Every structure is written in C-alpha cells, then in structure tokens.
Amino acid sequence: MLKRNLCASLMAASVIVFPVERAQADRGAALLGGALLGGIIVNEINKNKRRRTVSSGSSAAYSAQRAQNRQVQTALNYFGYNAGTVDGSLGSRSRAAISQYQAQMGFNPDGGLDDYERDFLLGSHQRAMASSHVAPYNQIVAQQGPAGLLRTYRNEQLGISTTTAVQPAPAPAPAPAPVPVATAPAPQPMPAPTPAPAATPAPTEPVSVTTRSDNASLPSFTFGQADRSVSQHCSEINVLTAANGGITAPGRVTDSEFALNEQFCLARTHAMAESNSITATIPNLTEAQIEQQCQGLAQVIKPQLSALPTARPDMVISDASAVLQGSGQPMAQLISGGKVCLGVGYRTDNAEMALASAVLLSAAGQLGYGEAVSHHMREGFGTAQADAAKSGAWMSLALNAVTSTAGAAVMGQSQDRVAVLQDASQGSASGGASAGLPVFPAPSGN
Known about the structure:
Distance between the termini: 123 Å
Number of strands: 0
Number of helices: 17
Organism: Arenibacterium halophilum
Mean pLDDT: 76
Low-confidence stretches: 10-38, 47-56, 164-173, 179-187, 432-446
Largest sheet: none
Protein name: Peptidoglycan-binding protein
InterPro entries: Peptidoglycan-bd-like (IPR002477), PGBD-like_sf (IPR036365), PGBDSf (IPR036366)
Helix content: 40-55%
C-alpha cells in the first residue's frame, strides 16, 4: 500500500513540475496586416499536418498499396495503355504504360504517378464506368475508343466544353388554315382641289450642304485591355500537346516558344496540386476565406511586380525579401502561404496573384520559382510582356538554383523538365531554331 501511494505521489508531482504547454498562434504580421501571411493558414497547417510514417513491414499498408496498384493497372488497361496482368506490382510494363498515359495527358512522362496524376486516372476510370454508355460519351467511345474519354475528361477539366449529342429535329408544325380576307370597298374618287393663288416667293438664303445636327459626332469609346487568361492559354497548349502525341522530350525541341509554354502549363498543374494538398489540411477556413487572404498577398507584393519590367531579378528579390523580413513571420510560414496562394491564383485564373506568390517564394529562398516568374513575363500574364533577355534572366536564376543546389527543384522540376527548359531557353534567346542568316540556292549561272 505504501509503495502504491508513493508511485501515485510521484506521478502527481511530475504533472505539477511539467505542465502541458498550450500552443499559441503566431501574431499577425505588422506589415502584411490581415493578408494571407498573417499566420492563420500555416498555423492550421501545422496543427493538422499529416504525417505519413507507414512501416515498411506493415502488412496492412502493403495490402493497401497493392490494391491501389491494381486499380491503377485496371484503369490503364481500360484506357488502352497496356499495363499487362493486374497483379498489384508496378513492373516495367506498368511503368511504360504510365509513361504513355503521362505523355498523352501532357504530364511529365517519368513512369511514376504523383497524387494528382493518380487521382485523375482513377477518377476518370470511375467516371467512365458510369458515363460511357450515355450521350455524348457513348459517341466518343464509338469514334475514338476509351482513350477518347480520358482526353475528353481532361479537356472538360481544363474548361473545354464537350459537344453534346445531336438531338432529332422536332416535327414541323402543321400549317395554319387560310384565313378568309374580306374585300375592301373600292375607294371613291376625291374631288380635285381648287388651286390657290400664287404667292410671291420670299427671298431665300443659301443653304450649306454640310449642315448637320449639333448633336451629331463620330463615336468615341475608351477600350480597356482585357487581362489574358492563363487558364485559356494552357487549355490551348494542352490540346496541341495531345495532338502532337505528348509533351516535348529532351533533345527534341523544335519550337522553343511552344516548349516553354508546355513547361509553364506543366508547372502550373504541379503548383495547383501542391496547393490543394496543403489546403486540404486547413479545415477551419473556407475557400473564399483563403482566396481573400491571397488577395492581400498580391497587394503587398504589388510594388515588386511593378518593378519587374525594368529591374534585375536580384533587385526585385532583395526588395521583396526586405518586405518578408519586416513582416516578423517565420520564413517557413511565409513559404507555405506562398505555395497555397500560387495554386489559388492559377485555380481562380488570377495571374497577378500567382505572379506575386512566385516572387514571394523566390524572395524567400525558393529560387526555383523564378521559372514561373519568367513564364509570366514572357507571356505577359499579370505584368507587362517582357523581352527574352528580361524573362530569360529569371529562368537562368531558377535553372542555376535547381542544377546547383540539392533539393531546390519545385513545381515538378525533374531532370527531363530542366533539360527541356534549358534547350528551349537557349533557342528562345537566339530567336528560335529557324533564326539565322537567309540561305538562298546558288545561281545557276544562266
């Protein structure tokens, strides 16, 4: 009894000596006010951060992985990518099928599925099971096979509408019966008017043939320039990529501008997927609330966006870095918020928000995001369109960071993607593959 009481006393003392500390939320940034960087997003991220620590020897995890692999193989086979036997083991044949699927969808064909690519494949398969027999999808299957459904679902996700089935024309309505028309009585002749006495004409003043109303004038309108849509741009690029049989591979860059646009849209897809994975861990904020905070980020970084057309990348980054340092927020917190808003900007087609997020991330030390800044400047999304030298400086900054620093790759910057970016950037800086002195056939001498 004495021993039991002694243990209980020791436990109670330990509770008194070591109280449980309650986490406190970071204070809002003085400079950034109520914007995204106020700390609320990342605090929720930290509280709800998912930890994927699955033991390799866990039989339950192994079984779940095999089951997911079988779903992947089944979906690949359905859409015409031969993954072989559905056994739950992703061997060389399955990897080749995955690469084929990725290439035709405009993803990076590395043979390994990220969460976005896997979810899209499996979700499309489930959708095909439910919709392949109804119009207009049954017509697509009849004309293009199951692979046509996958392309159609991708296009719908990109905002390209699917042509609906042609409905039979309605039967013409019967012609109305003729309505009898009453014959009007013949008009009676009018008596001839009595001629009035001739009046002496008054003197007249000459009339100008150019006389016009005082209110008449040529139309004068003020036309505003509509912002370019990144979403529409990437929809067009992805359609052309699919028509070409897949994304441009390293060593096969023939159109530098098109290859850079492919990489831009691929980076955009990765940015949205990363943003979605982070926001999924924030249960206490709605999408509208997150978007509102991201609007604040765009306003804070707006002075640096205005400097992009004229200032060097290091100057813009230095100015933006001073803003981040002055906010008083931890750098990791700022980076997480920037990743959230980069995807939100692309998802809501707000080019300025996405560009501001990429500048913020670059200023926070994530120089690989300079690729996104370069794409925006080259195409004029969220800023004035810049020449190849200005946009190329940001691309060089990003590529140097990725190739010289381990772990610096962002937005899916794999080795293949970096190789294409390097080839295309060199071609773009020199004016493209077709640039050079004119070449004419030698004269025949006649």
